[in-house]
């Protein structure tokens, strides 16, 4: 037992030496990562993100977000970090921060913000996470509970003790969520005031997010699916949360710079929904102008455009068909590529695909101990290799859905010139409200096909009711 005591004291000493003064709060925090390690960790994850998430290609907009972010950083507690602010090219309503100052905002969120102060509030909140080293503190807490779990397990000789401590540690780390978000709100509000933005912009952003969340939940219920909302506790604040109000009002209040016109000019022409570079969904079609391709999915199937794949689900989600890129194999024909993927012993009923500038091969694959059937195809086009895989939850339905999946595979074609305009997607555009203008009238001029009135209200912070004022700049989608 003395050896175990010695081990526990060594581990305890390691934990105690991990305390450091938080640069943003002045309190002593438990951390097991130096600042250089923090920056290195953030850089490593940023490199991964650059490979996994598409970066919005508008350099002018990227530079604008960087300028606003740097204005916040200059008045923060850790201005020495080399912050990078990046716009992600997805319609997701989200923003997040990595250790060391790597901050990301999705253009989907930017579409619903209405001023530079709103943008600054989102960025300031994320900067607050960085300056307070929230990710580092959570990482250290996780490591600490892991170490303590080892000690408990060693003393008890029961492996489950480690699992129990791990569960306890997970609860502790998750428990930080509420406090960390409020701390990021307070620090963000402070940075806003220091940078001459009104700290109340933090409340405005939460209002925008809550409206979007309400609409998203309503739409999801109507479509029979789970809603997707902005990350973290930042989205769960009630509009009139007393603690949030106290946090925001605890910093010096300045009327500050709203920058509405600057912001609207910056996002004028920004992609809305799918972007040209990521491919565009139009009805049953997926159009990708940079790759010059078009593919048509079965009627009624829901198409999801992910950063690394396109996925279609049948109405009852009984069947799925996915398409993604695979590495090129020199001197390997499509049929051989398919055989390499699934094994010749598992391949059934293969056939060639030949059309203008397209070569491919499709077959049925039998996999798993129950012999589950899948439709697999490899298509060579424009120097790229496309994999298409279709499957059903239950094998007995495969014969019902396979003809639809095969039809989709054979619909793969060179993008017709008549679809070039559609393949460019929708854009946020500015217009001045006319006298007597209503969102119902604007909806008729919009390219939005579904929930046009509701989406225009959300875009212009008029949800769920109200009409624009004459002469006001409005965002529309065309």
UniProtKB/TrEMBL annotation:
Q: Does the keyword Protease apply?
A: yes
Keywords attached to this entry: Hydrolase, Metal-binding, Metalloprotease, Protease, Signal, Zinc
Could you tell me the EC number(s) of this protein? 3.4.24.-
Asked if the record carries the keyword Signal, the reply is yes
Which domain of life does the protein's organism represent? Bacteria
* InterPro entries linked to this entry: Mito/Outer_Membr_Metalloprot, Peptidase_M48
- Please list the residue ranges annotated as the Peptidase M48 domain: 61-247
PROSITE patterns linked to this entry = PROKAR_LIPOPROTEIN (PS51257)
* Co-factor requirement: Zn(2+)
Q: Name one Pfam family in it.
A: Peptidase_M48
Instruction: Tell me a Gene Ontology molecular-function term this record carries.
Output: metallopeptidase activity
Q: Which residues form the signal peptide?
A: 1-20
Q: What is this protein called?
A: M48 family metalloprotease
- Which taxonomic lineage does the organism of this UniProt entry have? Bacteria, Pseudomonadati, Pseudomonadota, Gammaproteobacteria, Oceanospirillales
């Amino acid at each position: 037992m003395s050896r175990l005591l010695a081990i526990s004291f060594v581990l305890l000493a390691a934990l105690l030496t991990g305390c450091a003064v938080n640069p943003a709060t002045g309190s002593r925090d438990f951390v097991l990562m130096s600042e250089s390690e923090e920056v290195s960790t953030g850089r490593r994850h940023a490199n991964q993100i650059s490979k996994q998430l598409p970066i919005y290609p508008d350099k002018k907009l990227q530079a604008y977000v960087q300028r606003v972010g740097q204005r916040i950083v200059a008045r923060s507690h850790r201005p020495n970090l080399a912050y990078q602010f990046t716009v992600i090219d997805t319609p997701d309503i989200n923003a997040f921060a990595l250790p060391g100052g790597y901050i990301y905002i999705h253009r989907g969120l930017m579409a619903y913000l209405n001023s530079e102060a709103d943008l600054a509030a989102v960025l300031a909140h994320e900067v607050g996470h960085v300056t307070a080293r929230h990710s580092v503190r959570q990482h250290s807490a996780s490591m600490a509970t892991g170490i303590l779990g080892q000690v408990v397990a060693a003393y008890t000789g029961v492996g489950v003790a480690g699992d129990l401590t791990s569960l306890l540690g997970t609860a502790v780390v998750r428990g930080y969520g509420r406090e960390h978000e409020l701390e990021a709100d307070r620090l963000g509000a402070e940075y806003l005031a220091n940078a001459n933005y009104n700290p109340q912009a933090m409340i405005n952003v939460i209002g925008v997010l809550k409206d979007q969340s309400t609409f998203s939940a309503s739409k999801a219920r109507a479509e029979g699916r789970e809603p997707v909302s902005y990350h973290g506790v930042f989205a769960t604040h009630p509009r009139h949360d007393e603690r949030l109000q106290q946090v925001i009002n605890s910093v010096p209040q300045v009327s500050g710079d709203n920058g509405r016109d600057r912001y609207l000019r910056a996002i004028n022409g920004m992609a809305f929904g799918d972007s040209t570079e990521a491919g565009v969904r139009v009805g049953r079609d997926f159009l990708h102008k940079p790759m010059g391709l078009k593919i048509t999915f079965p009627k009624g199937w829901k198409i999801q455009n992910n950063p690394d794949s396109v996925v279609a689900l049948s109405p009852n989600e009984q069947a799925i068909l996915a398409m993604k890129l695979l590495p090129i194999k020199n001197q390997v024909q499509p049929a051989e590529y398919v055989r390499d993927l699934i094994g010749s012993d598992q391949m059934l009923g293969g056939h060639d695909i030949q059309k203008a500038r397209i070569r491919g091969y499709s077959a049925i694959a039998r996999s798993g101990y129950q012999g589950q059937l899948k439709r697999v195809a490899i298509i060579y086009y424009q120097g790229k290799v496309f994999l298409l895989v279709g499957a059903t939850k239950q094998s007995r339905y495969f014969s019902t859905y396979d003809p639809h999946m095969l039809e989709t595979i054979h619909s793969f074609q060179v993008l017709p010139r008549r679809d070039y305009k559609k393949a460019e997607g929708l854009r946020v555009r500015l217009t001045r409200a006319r006298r007597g203008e209503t969102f119902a009238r604007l909806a008729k001029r919009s390219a939005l096909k579904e929930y046009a009135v509701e989406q225009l209200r959300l875009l212009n912070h008029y949800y769920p009711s109200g009409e624009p004022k004459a002469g006001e700049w409005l965002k529309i989608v065309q």
